[in-house]
Amino acid sequence: MSDLSMNDMEKKLAEYKCDTNEAVCLKLVRFPEDIDDESTTFHPEFSHQLYGDDEVAFGYKGLQIQLYYSAGNLSTLFKVKYTARVTDTFDCMEPDDVEDDFISLLEKEANFKPFGSLLHTYKVHNVEAGEDLTYQIHKVDISCPGFREYHERLQTFLMWFIETASFIDVDDDRWDFFLVFEKYNKDGETLYATVGYMTVYNYYVYPDKTRPRVSQMLVLLPFQGEGHGAQLLETVHRYYCTSAKVQDITAEDPSENYVKMRDFVLVKLCLTLSSFSSEKLSQGFSEEMVSEAREKLKINKKHARRVYEILRLQNTDMSDEEKAREFRLEVKKRLYGPYRKNQRELTKMQKCLRPEELASHISQMDTRLQHEELDKSYQDVLAEYRRVLERLAQA
């Protein structure tokens, strides 16, 4: 085969490659007309967990992998559409008409009710609808009738939107589940749409405490940017605050976005504590802050310190050079911790390393470079804190 014909073949085959992040079409369907409404379609951020690292499907032109969920119960419709494929092996077979079956499931959505117990109700103003929409947060465990099957459908969203997602062992009774639903009306009936959820694992802490750890958290794409994540996290914190057995609340491998949201929620909660008052903030980080944050809000020392720095910034006139300097030095003192650790390790190395090995380690810990990195870390932290305060001012 000539090079030309080989190139032609490669070009032809390339026409049958599709980006699976674009090809996968997701919907949360409330009404039958939503099925053909392209404006209700959204796409995954990640599809490599199903379609490989290159996120490419081969063999189709115009591929659409349609995975539609009823908005509340998350019953599913799955269809594959394409304009052409490499080979039509079974062209004489007709697929079942599964779309009519899905519409009949939509009619049963009025029977769907949120699982578990209601913890919190809140409203969000929707500009498009021109009204306040009502949302509810429920707490549930796996023993709730029907929840196991519902959760199996719900967690399928993880692989589309969380890069390292994995399914959990729901038979372990240490799991707590928190669900967010939108309450809406259709033909005079009250229905509920799934908005998002959080899973929390209750770790045992000797001798008689537990440490709830947030494992998974997801707000479905059509509802993102409306503040549901913060509402959910605050509700979960308030739920565990009522238990004397809870030591503190943590998170498993938190993302950058989760940390931003947690900063906002914890600062908002700590504003109610007397130890974080303006007068006490000016006196520096204290054991009173640590103990009150832990006892009343189940916030650990590391997070309490971060909250203190954010609120200290809010109460500092950064145009006053002396006050700005005091704040900067206090934050940098905390940030310098890892560098101090390096210095201690260097002292130990001096006793056991050969001169050439020691010189190599010293060059890696160049003082000027450390100061540059420290200053950059401070500027990054300052930008993060200011974003939290901006959001707090808008809340």
Biggest sheet: strand arrangement: 8-9-10-11-12-13
State the total count of DSSP E strands. Answer: 13
Using only C-alpha atoms, the radius of gyration works out to 27 Å
What's the rounded overall pLDDT mean? Answer: 89
Number of helices: 15
Query: Major β-sheet, in short?
Result: 6 strands, mixed
In the CATH hierarchy, what is the architecture of the largest domain at level 2? 3-Layer(aba) Sandwich
Cα shape: globular
Region (Interaction with histone H4 N-terminus): 53-55, 201-203
EC number: 2.3.1.48
GO molecular function: histone acetyltransferase activity; histone binding
Protein name: Histone acetyltransferase type B catalytic subunit
Describe what is shown at a glance.
The chain is of the alpha+beta class and 395 residues long.
Question: How would you describe what is shown here?
Answer:
This protein has helices at 3-14, 20-23, 48-51, 98-107, 147-154, 158-161, 228-241, 256-270, 278-281, 287-297, 301-314, 321-335, 337-349, 355-364, 367-394; strands spanning 17-19, 24-29, 56-58, 60-61, 64-70, 76-81, 84-85, 117-126, 131-140, 175-186, 189-205, 209-219, 250-251. It has 395 residues and is α+β, with helices and mostly antiparallel strands. The protein folds into three domains: 14-109, Histone acetyl transferase 1 (HAT1), N-terminal domain (Histone Acetyltransferase, domain 1, Alpha-Beta Complex); 113-253, 3-Layer(aba) Sandwich (Aminopeptidase), CATH 3.40.630; 276-394, Orthogonal Bundle (Arc Repressor Mutant, subunit A), CATH 1.10.10. It has a six-stranded mixed sheet with strand order 8-9-10-11-12-13, with helices on one face. Helix 7 (228-241) packs across helix 8, helix 8 (256-270) crosses helix 11 (301-314) and helix 8 (256-270) crosses helix 15 (367-394). The termini are far apart. 25% of the residues are buried. The mean pLDDT is 89. The record marks 175 as: Interaction with histone H4 N-terminus.
